[in-house]
Design brief:
There is one protein chain. The protein is an alpha+beta fold. It has a domain at 529-711: Penicillin amidase (Acylase) alpha subunit, N-terminal domain. Helix content is 31%, strand content 23%. A hairpin with a 4-residue loop joins strand 5 and strand 6. Helix 2 crosses helix 6 (123-142) and helix 13 (529-539) packs across helix 15. The protein is globular.
Length: 729
Amino acid sequence: MKLLKRFGIGLLILVILGTIGLAIWEPMSVSTVTPPPEKTYEARIVRDNFGVPHIFGKTDADVAYGVAYAHAEDDFQTLQEVTAMTRGRMATLNGAEGAPIDYVAALLDVEGTVKRKYDELPADVRAVLDGYASGLNAYAEEHPGEISLAKLFPVNGRDIAAGFALRSPFFFGLNGPIQALTEGKPLRREGGPSLSVPIENRTVHPLSDDKIMTPVGSDPDENGSNAYAVAPARSSDDKTRLISNSHQPLRGNVAWYELVVHSEEGWDFAGANFPGSPFPFLGHNKNLGWTNTVNRPDLIDIYKLTLNEKRNAYKYDDEWLPLEKKRIWLKIKYGPFVIPYPQMVYRSIHGPVIINDQGGYALRYAGMDQLDMLTQYYRINKAQDFDAWQAAMAGQGVPATNFIYADAKGNIGLFYNAMFPDRAPGFDWRTVLPGDNSNAVWQKTLPFTRVPALINPASGYVMNANNTPYVAAGPRDELNRETFSPLMGIEDDETNRSMRSIDILESFDKIGEAEIRKLKYDTAYVKRGYAKAWLDQIAALDVPAGSDYETAQNLLGQWDWDLDGEGPADALALMVLRPANKSHYRRGEKPDPLEILTETVDHLNQYFGRVDPPMLEVLRLRQGNVDLPIDGGNDTIRASTLWDVEDDGRLSVRHGDSFVMFVEWDKAGVVTSRSIQPFGAATTRPESPHYTDQMQLFVDKKLKPVLFDPVELEKNKASEKVVGTAVNP
């Protein structure tokens, strides 16, 4: 009896010790990162009436320090998530939902890329990264109570670079093949019509779930944007115009953060970045500007490896090469515990390898194992004319995204930017490739001179709305698709937004303020394409006579094709069109029209008691205690792309129109700009006056001045502070 009692007490002690151990072992297992080299930084942060930070510094590194510090003041929570992601500690911070992100970081060997490539970056780029890291460290040190994860700080420039290496490939769809291969699902390829390659006997990866491939905080298949540039010749007032209308999540680690920077080293820029970046990704300086839209060329190739029986070597031409493998431990938070979860990652000469029941599959993708996007973004930020901007673009660091350009001299252009693999003819690049043939493994990318570019077309405008670059400037002024090799994998897709944009732009003789506003805030659908085909299918359904489903059919049959919130069928159309657009944009399986109609009608009846509630009662922009109606839909130029269904049945927008910027250069080349955000500058600070202060303007389709000129800022500043290593907190 005494023995059993002693055994029980001993077991209890072991359980307690084990519990304590699981609670504290993870931070103990993390190596302390060497902070950036000690240096004196000083930045002045001036905030305007909307809380937008304007950061001034003597050097670019000083400004980067201030960018990080100001952003942390507004959203330290998200910056910590980005830091955890780059360190492979997302699952420790956020639990099991973060484990796939940590797995992907290891699979892509982000840490190895930084070790191999960081020291090759130019010294001035590394100085800016260190300045940014130092700003984050300073904020963390001054606000220890806000730190969510032990030993997350200090960070250094390498950590900042790692964030770029991890997140960049997911903007051109690397999530797709990784998810398909880990789950044993058919492969869907980018860059034109879908080709599905079945992988039989589905194998479910232990980390697989619907969220496995969303490490950038957004579903890459739903990314969108509209962008327009108008030359003086087409303008009604001789102005050059650039309209930036990015569609991103409204919250999270790829939500836009607005800022303005001024450095005595010539870095003057107004725009927006993502958490974790020292540089604005889009916007303008005095002389030029650009914006971006997601493009989807085929930049990923997949190889079936010939493995030996032990699966530790693969055939490559006439040799057997060892398959690299590495055991990793995903540190997953469960309540107060952190549980180690083992996984194996593989690599071949091709790139990352995923092994399932069908064998080994290697991936090779644009921008693999490089950090040059950091240099490119920095250089285009500081370019002062079109030639310098194009020279910076020719560095080809950004793996993919359209750039729509305009400048003070009246130049405009669309650049279908991508690091196109230099593929050899003779292979079906649309399918899984033979991994044992070195001729199928491309070694370089095409030069920037091969990138599709449309500069100063006769139409006087360029546009993109996540559509093919072959539709960008209207009839008679488009690129000739016959001049581009099919091996480049350039997509042929159109969106409702692209078709509608061309229709509207072609209807104008001249384009001024009124016309550009009409275009930007348009909420209509064209009566052709996937939307027309889908509504025809719904109209043809055999539903019970006299039922609410028949009523819904009749309402949709009379719909005015405009999601402005004024018609009785708008709520119905909003909800039934979203699945159709999703399948069209993803080139995926078509939804069942009867199922979608039934779900929509049932939802509206359950929560609103009718099938024709006003759309503006259904679709909402919500943050904190502010709850506002909003218009637009899933593929309208005024975009309310994705939403969460909340407890009251209303649809709370979480993705769509986000940072909007109107830029103009007058005849004298003087720049002015206006902008708006859906919520405000401080998206995770409910106590801040800038948590919701832009919402009413946003739904009212109004813009605020950017105050790029420091003289104008001084007249309208709300606060000012100096931060830096030589400044007392």
